[in-house]
Design brief:
mainly alpha
Length: 241
Amino acid sequence: MDILLTILAIFVGSLVLVTAGFGIAIGSSPIMLLTLDPKSTVIIINTVSLLIFVLMIHQNRRHINYREMTVPVIFGMMGVPVGVYILSNSNPSALRVSIALLIIFLGFVMVLNPTIAAIRHRYTLWGAAFLVSAMITSTGIGGPIMAIAALSREWDRESIRGSLPYYYLFIETTAVIGYFITGMFDSERLILTGVSIFPALLGFFIASMLVKKINQSYYRRLILGIVICAGTVILVKEVFV
């Protein structure tokens, strides 16, 4: 049952990730948490997603904002040890509630006024990169914040689908190394990660074909919808479950 649900979850998460440029945990976590513990869920998702990031970077390599993402990558890597510590030593539930509220708030802000200067400021992007890194490493959740930062810069679909995976690749590679160093990567998690490769690839190829049929204006609304729904689902789950 663990293997079957993991395969289904990674396939769904991969569809979301490749379509939006973020959100594999949004699609995968609710399914995986039916049978797996939160720590295993985070570790497996963050590991198998590395393959998808590489493919997305290659697919959108001409549209990546390498220069603008350099500093956020550095700040993000600084946040990884914080996330590894949280995952290995504490219960991240309260942190997930906080980030869910922030996601919902920022999502509605973007809907109402996407040109607010504070959101577009480069220092805000750097701070978001650190926060998102710690959150993704410890809970698998946090990508919508980087998506909001990207939307506020008026990046097009290909730039978002290339630049965000470029950032995530550095962060989650560092996180996976941290999981190994701290002894959190056991044999069961390795097996579940291995069986997740095929559904991840299948989701990538299907979503790559579907995303070409989505126009730019609808794509922006799609991302904002995912952001707000993600925050709401996370919040409801943490408060009532």
